[in-house]
Amino acid sequence: MMAPMILLILIACNVIMAFVSSLSAKPHNYVILENTFPADKIDDPTVINFSKKFRKRQFQLAFILTLLDLTLLIPMKDSSFMLLFFLLLYLTIGMNYLLTLRYIRKGHQLIIENNWQLPTQPIQIDTRLILEKNRKLVSPWWFLVSLSLIFFLSIVLYKQKNPDMAWILLITNGLIWFVMVFTWRVIRRLPVRPLTNDPKINQQYNDLTKFYWSTFSVFMSGLISLIVYIPLLTMTISTRFFTILTAIEFLLILLFCGASIWWLIRLRKKQDQLLTTSTTFRYFGDDYYWRYGMYCNPDDPRLMVPDRIGMNISINLGKIAGKIFLSLIPLILIGAMAVAFIPLYVLDYHPDPLSYEIKSEAVILDGPLVKAQRIPFARIQKVTLIDHMPNRQIRTNGLATNDYAIGHFQIAGKPAVLFVDHQSKPILTIVTKNRTYYYTNKHSTETKHLYQELQSID
């Protein structure tokens, strides 16, 4: 079941990246793929053909990568599967970037060959625009709505006798909320540049940007809270509502993705409509600083700048903080792969990955990704051997694959800790007052031996 789901995730990544990247080939502020074209050349057949060719190449690449992703359907060990997944994901990111970079160069060459270079104009200072740059910014008081929602959902979860999950919800959504507030603050501090000689158009353009982006950050701070909360709610409800809440969760995720794209594309269109009413578009020579698809200008005091697609905020890599941010990305990617791959590798190839030890009037269960569990004999209420795990399992912390289930779970509404290799039978269950433990050794004889030892304890 895991392979088809992850395959769908990769295919979705391919399609989404192709779609978002193709937006850069549609003119925005007369910019196509980081190259600014003269206003009267945007509809030139050569330029239109260049844009169409890039969009076509993006979706052709997505199709080729999808064919490669089908290798995930080949039967393999979990560690090999996870390693292949990350390699395919990083290949998608890398190939998408290289293709975009290639066409940025092609666009620059197209401008040079046709002698379409624009004269660089000095940056114009509009005092009134600077003073009124935030007049359409959504008030930060709206964040209190999403903050109230976070506390309300946490209290509901706490009252459902799930305090651990309530704290996880509060901390997770609190961090997300602070990120959204920080985003709003970045939007508020973004400096303005008059893009035309018409002050009215410049003001309207700036007002649109500030309103749409600040509204987006406020709206997402509440919607993400709901997306995080619903999976936690499914742990405590009856089975008949599980399917309904799962459907709501997927609908919210689709709403999150769809609303984000729709809202920001709507902003792009309105900005472009404004600029087409003016014939005095000002070019500041920014193409030079976007040569690699990322902004790098040591002389620009801004750390955060709007991207040229008009749908995001980018980092100025010319600043030290920008360089630190860029250097962290490969570390995060490698770290994510290591965290997912290494435990699975241990489970697949270690001779005894799920171990046990009887010591000091207690049995100790241990395995990757979860703290060793010490279970005093005095707390054990029941010990049994079963052939199959209960059907309804919800992972709260740990690992769940086709072959393994390691960590903290909710099973039939009760907390459980699993050290289970699904390929090994039988499964030992140790029932205590607060939770149930499920354990299998890689060698079934060892599991049975532990069962017999626990049974013999008075």
Uncertain stretches of 5 or more adjacent residues: none
Rg is: 28 Å
Indicate the structural class: alpha+beta
Shape: elongated
Give the ordered list of helices and strands: HEEHHHHHHHEEHEEEEEEEEEH
State the separation between the terminal residues, measured CA to CA: 42 Å
Reported for the largest beta sheet, the result is: 6 strands, mixed
Number of domains: 2
Residue-averaged pLDDT, rounded? Answer: 87
- β-sheet strand percentage: 5-15%
Q: Spatial order of the strands in the main sheet?
A: 8-12-13-11-10-9
- How many strands appear in the DSSP assignment? 13
Can you count the helices?
10
Polypeptide structure, described:
- This protein has 10 helices and 13 strands.
- Helix 1 packs antiparallel against helix 2 and helix 3 runs antiparallel to helix 9.
- The protein folds into 2 domains: 253 residues, no CATH class; 100 residues, no CATH class.
- The chain is of the alpha+beta class and 458 residues long.
- A 6-stranded mixed sheet has the order 8-12-13-11-10-9, with helices on one face. It has a 3-stranded antiparallel sheet with strand order 5-6-7, with no helix packed on it.
